[in-house]
Structure formats: C-alpha cells, structure tokens
Amino acid sequence: MFVSSPPEPAPHANHMVARAVLASELGPDGRRSRVSRLRSDGPLVLRPSHPKGAEPLTHRRTDAARVSLAAGTAGPLGGDDYALSIHVGAGSTLVLQDVAAMLVLPGAGGGRSRMSLDIRVDDGATFVWWPEPIIAAHRCDHTHDIRIEIAPDARMILREEAILGRHGEVPGNFASRLRITRGGAALYDQRLRFGPSAAGADGAAVLGDAGAVGSIIAVDPAWERGAPPADPYDRGAALTPLAGPAIAIGAVAADSLALRRLLVRGLDILGGPWIARHNGKDGS
Amino acid sequence: MDGAGGSAALLLLSDGRLPAGGYAHSGGLEPAVTAGRVTDMSDLERFLVGREETAGLIAAAFSAAACERSRRGELFEIPALEAELDARIPSSELRRISRELGRQLRRAMSAVHPHPHYDALGAAPHQPVVMGVAAASLDLSPRDMALAILHETNADAAAAAAKVLRVDPFDVHAILARMATRLDRLAGEAARAAQGPSADLPAPGSPLADIAAEHHRRADVRLFAS
Question: Which portions of this protein are annotated as coiled-coil regions (chain A) (predicted)?
C-alpha cells in the first residue's frame, strides 16, 4: 500500500465498464480471413486496419484479418473494468495490434483498474497479437489478466511489454497474469507483480532495478518434436524452449527502447517467418 | 490435527544434509552474483525476499499440493500437477534442474523410507512433487511441507552466500530471521492454494532468475550447479 497517499474519498460511480468482442473466421473462398464479429465498447475501440509497423508471421500477407485496438479515453483508471474477448476461428488468421501504448493511471476515487482478455484460438488458426507496451503510472493499481486457449494445431505469437512508470517516475502497483493452455493443458502460466506492494520485485531474482520487462511467446505445432534450443543472447534476455511446442523470449531492460531492441533480437534468433518485418513506413 | 506428531520427520525432510543433491545448488544466488546483481547485504536481502515470493512460493505450493493429493490417494492428479509446474518455469535449465533434483530425492527417499507412491511418479518428477509425496508418506501436512520447502529455499542460498560473497554469516542469518514471519505467511498461502485446483496454484514469475540460470549453465567457472 502507498502509505503517503491521503485517505481515499468515497468513490463516485463514474467507473468505466467495457466489454468488447472480436472474432475472425475463414471466408467463403477458404483462403482469406475476415472479421466476423467486432464490437467496440466505450474506451475499447476496435477497428479493421491495414498492416502497420513490423509484424511477425504475417508479413505482407493480404489474406489475414487485421484489427487495431485504440483506447478511446485515457486509462484504464482506478476503478475501471475492461474486458476483451477474442475468438480466432478455425483456419483463420487474425493480427491484432494497438494504436498506442496503454497508460494505466490511478482513478480520482482510488480503486483497482482491471483489464481481462479471454482468447480462444481454434484448429488451424494463426493469431498474431502485437500490442504496444503497458505503462504503469505512479500510484496506479492495475490488474491485467490474460487467458488463452489454443488448439493443438494452431499457431500463435504474442508480445507483452510492461514499463515501470513514465519517465523518471516510480510505478504504482501492477499485477499481470498470462496463462496459456493448449488443448486444455497448461503450457505457460506466469504472474508478474511490481510496485510498492510487491515485496522483492526489485531484487535480483525478479526485476532488480529494471525499468521495463517483457516477453514474447510463440507456439507452433511444427515444434512438436522439440522447440528451438535455449539461447541466453544478452545479459538481460534469453530465448528458452517451453515444455511443449513453444518458446518464450524473456527480457529485462532499463527502459522501453532497450526492451524493444532485446525482444527484436530474440525474434531474429528465432529466425524464419518469426522475424518481425516492416510492412509500411512506420518505424516501430 | 493430522501430521501434528510428525515434527521429527519434518526436520528430516528439511535438513540440507539429506543426501538428495541440494547442497550442489545455490538457489540462483551464484548466477545473480556472477551477473553483478548481488554485491552487498541489501542486494542479498532483496534477492532472498524476491526469490521466496516467487520460486519459493511456487515450490511450496506445488509440494503442498502433491502432499494433499498423495494423502487423498489422488495420484492421478500428479501428471496435471507436473504440467502446471512446467508451465510456471519458462527456463528449460531450471526445469531440468528441478527434475534432476526430483530424481535424486526420489532415489534417496525410496531407500530411506520406501512407499508405493514413489513408483507412481514418472521417470524424472519435479522436486517439489517428490517432496510432497515424501511428506505424505511421513504423515506430514501440506502446510508443514510448504514451510519446509520455503526454509530449504532460504537455507540453500544462505549457505551458498558464504562461498560466493564476502559476507558475515551473522548478517546472513539476521536476514533469515527477519524473513521468518514472511515464510510463515507464504506457507499458509501455499497450503490454502493446495486445497484448490492445480490450475489455480500460484504462478509468480522471476524473469531475472530465469535469464541468469540459462547464462549460468554456460559459465566456465562456477561453484554451484544453479
């Protein structure tokens, strides 16, 4: 808890509750994917989009369905509750990107902000989730909960980046969980906590004095007989095979730019279609 | 309460002198020192707290869960428990070490105190899972086992500190004394989680420990295996 903060006033009932839905399916030609459901809600604005910036797996592919997520307002703020449900239908390819980084802030009335993502990737589908960083602002209290169920013959790559405060700022409390099950069995389950109430997060076993932490998870049934070997390619980063046809790239860095560079290097090591190539002029 | 009479057995299991290979490991401390991230006593304290809150809690919760399931005779739950633990250890090196220690512990316990449940474990079960099964065979409670694991996590690193850092052993044990109530709280948390489904067991990550473990495996000079 943040002991120096004043007693919280009674919260006003102006908290945002948002429930957005996104789904893709294979079109009637059996080749092109299309968005079959797109429901924005309040601050969660989903829009069909064109290729933007660097993309792994789907570089220049015109048969993929692309959607971008934009925050219609600042936040989430303390007390807000956002949820996004995503269904990547059998055989379809969905690319989801963010328009900008997400800044999580404390609310006027205090309270915890929450964002949950419930994602299902069906048989033969490909899901590329390439969001921008989440920035945990000073005194925020945010919980980020991501659950993904992926079918055994589906492919996926996702990136997650958390920044510990805006420039020169001590972050508030941030807790995230990413749980991936494959065919119902656990594949990857990691919770991350930092901020004033996360004891030991600043220790050398967890984050030390880092200002940014991130990972990339790639799942590919082609790795059923063994995922690529471990490669600790930097003092603050390593690519490791998971106990299944998947790899994790974990990186801890001083700031968001250094983190992004480490993650890009990890993808370069993975090679082949996984390298994030630029589709447009965007320099990200 | 069940297991209340098993205090001596608890000491047996949590003693670092049990010939099960734990002495060869620094609990991630040597890799952190090699990486230059632990250089003084305040670094060491933050390291130990962070480790107990993450890898320590996971090991404690999984050993408590294995103990609980073994006590109930629900060994069919063990493979799911193993998969859940795999999913919580992104470092392939740390998974390998956990299974290597599990294999050694099972060998030791099968000789010290045979029990048919050991045969139900796979070829190389995770160490916390074997610990939990061993605890159940000695009629210990899940909370006892969680506390023993948390104690062992600290004790391994504290013993290693004297070898990899220039420290006063009194200072190291002062840290452990300050952490005593934390270990009690974490043991309670682990034991509560052990009552629930395996999917809901704690999953706190330790990114720097994962990265350092992969570097350590490739280090030319090292005193400890991890």
Answer: none
